[in-house]
Design brief:
EC 3.4.21.83, 7-stranded antiparallel beta sheet, Methylamine Dehydrogenase, Chain H, AB_hydrolase_fold, 8-stranded mixed beta sheet, 12 helices, 38 strands, Peptidase_S9A, 18% helix, protease, alpha+beta, Rossmann fold
């Protein structure tokens, strides 16, 4: 990189806080003042500095963007999904940032989804919502709700134009195409219709951005008349709302990190009082799915990796076992259809699906061909059906949509995401790439899985560059996924690896429990162990290894930078949670109280405070030689505030001034970054160009 430009100077305004007898000085707390012109000026100056420092990568960024664009079928159409008398689908159009949401009437005798040549509109298409029209005049656009009423007449949808995840809810008459006067500001994700479509349920948040209320809105009435159906006052819990697939019940899900409670309202009696399926018990999680005369209960009551039971839908009571607990087989979800149940599960680090025919003991697991893959149910809105829609992919197999016949057990490929020829004009051939499962040995003797993909013939003599990705929180699993943009790295000789570290859910609930609270450091040491193993096994060398993570994975990036700065030549931290202790100490911030069951409560517990302070990245910046760091954040992010990486980069420059640290702030986006697909491709091209530059492959 060039060195002519000096970074902007971050002024130091010491701010003190004291907890459990410990006084901490924060010189950069002033950066949290989002509305202060000095803050905006500083972030703008940082962007200008980053632009100058990466100006030499402009041609490479353009090449990477163009490679992604050329490999993507820009005008495309998703596989239509049947609901009632219509097929629903989304189209993309070349040159347009957002999808066009459509439907087409089901024709007589039509059982298979209609297809379209080259993504062209289907004959008889009805456009429900065009994201490009909605986004006109806005730098950011996101849909929250998109919910067609059971009778197909109304569309409830919500929009966010800033990235702060507060949506305005509207209702469209699909018969006339007109918007109803109904409009509700400041709503959250989630909505549910009553059976007769006269009532719409939705969710709002409190001042800390916690979804805490479920409301009932009568179509045609002003929002001021809406009624709170459920309010959750315990700040550890959040709420959600949905209509069951059977369309018989409204479910209100109340959940903390470790405890849950579900309430139901008959969809045919939307003004009825919510009834509790089972009262909350600390440490017991359960979800509910309606199936005929019963409610299916997926739970962890004396079942670490969850079990499946049922109770009466008329008078919920005792839970009758359906699938007993099997240690090491994590049951993740159950989907009910009239004559079959489909259980989503994972075992040995891989996802799977188990089919349970109703009234039969002949349950079975669906087989899949690759050693590494991800599979799950796709949209399946129809309750009475003999087939289900699956979505499948791997590190070398593009996203694939299948219909699976629950009776004949035949799986039919409906569509695989097209991957068009790259710059050399050659079509994509998965046989030119190979995927591997490797295992690292953690400090405590635990075996940690690593998934890898590279071009066939990539040397194992340590000469190949490598990107190592990680997350490791919230029981979220980084299952193998396909990426068109990643091909540009693989074709330049880069090995892409995913560290399935503790704190995630890849190996069941115990894997998660061993990477949270006072065991959180396992997440970080596991990742370092994976990095060391890749070098030892000849995949790469530390001077050609870049680490990457986002959000809680950004916390991981900051932690490993302090823990093992010699293990990497570069680190990419996207919307990184690097000032975790400061945030978790402030219950007024978005999501803080709900996070205490993940990280611990440092306000009340001195042991948690000391433990978090010992690993949180911002607190532990030291005068050492750090790898180059690229931090990417968004001004309107409500989940991880932009100020966390801004402060982190400033402190890195002050305490370890010899390093190469860049901060890039999206000034009109949220936690997920830019919203349009072309803008997202440009962001990915920016990051990948920086990575290639660091590993000497630019």
């Amino acid at each position: 990189m060039t060195t002519e430009t000096a970074p902007p100077a971050a002024k130091r305004v010491p701010s003190e806080r004291t907890h459990h007898g410990d006084t901490v000085v924060d010189e950069y707390a002033w950066l949290a003042a989002k509305d202060d012109p000095e803050t905006i000026a500083y972030l703008t100056a940082e962007n200008e500095y980053t632009d100058a420092r990466t100006a030499h990568l402009a041609d490479l960024r353009a090449d990477l963007f163009e490679e992604t664009r050329r490999r993507t079928q820009e005008t495309d159409l998703s596989v239509p999904t049947r609901k009632g008398g219509h097929w629903y689908y989304t189209r993309t159009v070349e040159g347009q940032q957002y999808g066009v949401h459509c439907r087409r009437a089901v024709r007589d005798g039509e059982t298979d989804p209609p297809v379209s040549a080259d993504g062209a509109p289907l004959d008889g298409e009805e456009v429900l919502l065009d994201g490009n029209l909605l986004a006109e005049g806005h730098d950011f656009f996101s849909l929250g709700a998109f919910d067609v009423s059971p009778d197909g007449r109304w569309l409830a949808y919500s929009t966010d134009f800033s990235g702060d995840e507060r949506f305005t809810l509207r209702v469209k008459d699909l018969t006339t195409g007109e918007l109803l006067p109904d409009e509700v500001p400041d709503t959250f994700y989630g909505s549910a219709w009553s059976t007769d479509a006269s009532v719409l349920f939705y969710v709002t948040v409190d001042d800390a951005w916690r979804p805490n209320r479920v409301w009932r809105h009568t179509i045609g009435s002003p929002a001021a008349d809406d009624v709170v159906v459920h309010q959750e006052d315990d700040e550890r819990f959040w709420v959600g709302v949905e209509l069951t697939r059977s369309e018989k019940f409204i479910l209100i899900d109340v959940h903390s990190k470790v405890t849950s409670e579900v309430l139901v309202i008959p969809a045919g009696n939307p003004t009825g009082a919510p009834a509790v399926i089972a009262p909350r018990r600390q440490g017991v999680e359960y979800t509910v799915e309606h199936h005929g005369h019963r409610f299916l209960i997926l739970h962890n009551d004396n079942a670490e990796d969850f079990a499946l039971a049922f109770t009466s839908a008329d008078v919920p009571g005792d839970w009758v076992p359906l699938i007993e607990h099997t240690p090491g087989t994590r049951l993740e979800a159950v989907d009910a259809f009239a004559n079959h149940l489909v259980v989503s599960l994972r075992t040995d680090g891989l996802t799977g699906l188990r089919v349970l025919p109703v009234g039969s003991d002949d349950g079975y697991d669906i087989d899949f061909p690759e050693p590494l893959y991800s599979v799950g149910l796709d949209a399946n809105p129809e309750y009475r059906t003999g087939r289900v829609r699956l979505r499948y992919s791997s590190l070398i197999t593009p996203d694939s949509v299948y219909d699976y016949d629950l009776v004949t057990r035949q799986m039919v490929l409906l569509k695989q995401k097209p991957v068009l020829p790259g710059p050399d004009g050659r079509p994509y051939d998965p046989a030119e790439y190979e995927q591997h499962r490797d295992w690292a040995l953690a400090d405590d003797g635990t075996r940690v899985p690593i998934s890898l993909v590279c071009r066939v013939g990539t040397p194992r003599d340590g000469s190949a560059p490598c990107e190592l990705y990680g997350y490791g929180s919230y029981e979220a699993s980084m299952d193998p996924w396909f990426s068109v943009a990643r091909l540009s790295l693989l074709d330049r000789g880069v090995v892409f690896a995913v560290a399935h570290i503790r704190g995630g859910g890849e190996l069941g609930r115990r894997w998660y429990d061993q990477g949270k609270l006072l065991a959180k450091k396992n997440t970080f040491t596991d990742f370092v162990a994976c990095a060391r193993h890749l070098v030892k096994a000849g995949w790469t060398t530390s001077d050609r290894l870049v680490a990457r993570g986002a959000s809680a994975g950004g916390l991981l990036m900051g932690a490993v930078a302090n823990l093992a700065p010699d293990a990497f030549t570069g680190i990419v931290a996207q919307v990184p949670f690097v000032d975790a202790l400061t945030s978790i100490l402030d219950p007024s911030l978005p999501l803080t109280v709900t996070e205490w069951e993940e990280w611990g409560n440092p306000l009340d517990d001195p042991e948690v405070y000391a433990y978090m302070k010992s690993y949180t990245p911002y607190e532990n910046v030291a005068a050492v030689d750090y790898p180059a760091i690229l931090a990417v954040t968004s001004l309107n992010d409500t989940r991880v505030l932009y100020s966390e990486p801004a402060k982190w980069i400033a402190r890195l420059r002050a305490l370890a001034p010899g390093g190469d640290y860049l901060l890039k702030t999206e000034m009109g986006a949220g936690h997920g970054g830019p919203s349009g697909r072309y803008d997202s491709w440009r962001e990915e091209a920016f990051i990948n160009a920086w990575i290639l530059d660091r590993i000497g492959s630019a």
